[in-house]
């Protein structure tokens, strides 16, 4: 009798241990992801991709007619990417000088605001495949004959956003930089003669020249190196980055990227 009771006790203990092991392994529930990369699953769970953008950076991110809906090249591409991910695109408008701090503090999942890829940023953030290829240009007043190259910026004053890649280009050229919030303010200061120039994206200038033909500004010099702009993510967001890369690949293949690009620039600037 005691032997039978002992065997039953052993069997019960074995079954209990097996049940406990199955429970620890999930037992049909979603496996625990503690300490893992949940960047993509978090986006899928909340049903939206929260995207930081400036909202004042025409033609990439701006309000139609000044006070209309948020639109622009980056905005349309971000919406198309979110749709490929099966979630809603939710935008948070943020001044450029605080946009990386907002990403760091997890106020949003990514930034779509012509963020150019450079080594300093790659050391701290993850980037998607580039969706814009452009160059940096020096913009001056039309009657300025003293600046014809980046080297001519030495000792001159330029207007730049302090966290932009173009700020770095201006400083490396020897310019004295006056801080501004974005392109619109930079252009105004150049027009007023309060600064000598601004270094910015060629596509931004071309759109501005198209919509403001009497601006009195010109491209005085163009950088030899191309700049690549992409979505930027916090380090550790590899799963979300890979999903966005796949979305961009699909959007390029089905012609969506080229269509959006042609709408704003009359050419495909995505490759």
UniProtKB/TrEMBL annotation:
PROSITE patterns: PROKAR_LIPOPROTEIN (PS51257), SBP_BACTERIAL_3 (PS01039), TAT (PS51318). Keywords: Signal. It is found in: Cell envelope. CDD domains: PBP2_Ngo0372_TcyA. It holds the Pfam family SBP_bac_3. Residues 48-268 form the Solute-binding protein family 3/N-terminal domain. Residues 1-24 form the signal peptide. PANTHER family: ABC TRANSPORTER EXTRACELLULAR-BINDING PROTEIN YCKB-RELATED (PTHR35936:SF34), MEMBRANE-BOUND LYTIC MUREIN TRANSGLYCOSYLASE F (PTHR35936). Belongs to the bacterial solute-binding protein 3 family. This is Cystine transport system substrate-binding protein. It comes from Paenarthrobacter histidinolovorans.
């Amino acid at each position: 009798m005691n032997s039978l009771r002992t065997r039953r006790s052993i069997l019960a203990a074995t079954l209990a241990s097996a049940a406990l092991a199955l429970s620890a392994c999930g037992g049909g529930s979603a496996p625990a992801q503690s300490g893992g990369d949940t960047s993509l699953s978090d986006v899928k769970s909340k049903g939206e991709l929260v995207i930081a953008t400036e909202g004042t950076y025409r033609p990439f991110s701006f309000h139609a007619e000044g006070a209309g809906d948020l639109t622009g090249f980056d905005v349309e591409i971000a919406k198309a990417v979110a749709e490929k991910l099966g979630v809603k695109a939710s935008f948070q408008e943020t001044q450029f000088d605080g946009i990386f701090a907002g990403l760091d503090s997890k106020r949003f999942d990514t930034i779509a605001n012509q963020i150019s890829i450079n080594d300093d940023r790659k050391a701290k953030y993850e980037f998607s495949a580039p969706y814009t290829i452009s160059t940096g240009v020096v913009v001056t007043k039309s009657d300025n004959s003293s600046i014809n190259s980046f080297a001519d910026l030495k000792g001159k004053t330029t207007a730049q956003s302090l966290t932009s890649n173009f700020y770095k280009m201006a400083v490396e050229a020897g310019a004295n930089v006056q801080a501004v919030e974005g392109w619109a303010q930079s252009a105004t200061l150049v027009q007023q003669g309060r600064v000598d120039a601004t270094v910015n994206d060629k596509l931004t200038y071309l759109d501005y020249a198209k919509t403001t033909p009497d601006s009195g500004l010109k491209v005085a010099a163009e950088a030899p190196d191309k700049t690549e702009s992409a979505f930027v993510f916090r380090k550790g967001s590899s799963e979300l980055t890979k999903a966005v890369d796949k979305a961009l690949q699909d959007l390029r293949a089905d012609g969506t990227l080229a269509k959006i690009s042609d709408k704003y620039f009359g050419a495909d600037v995505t490759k």
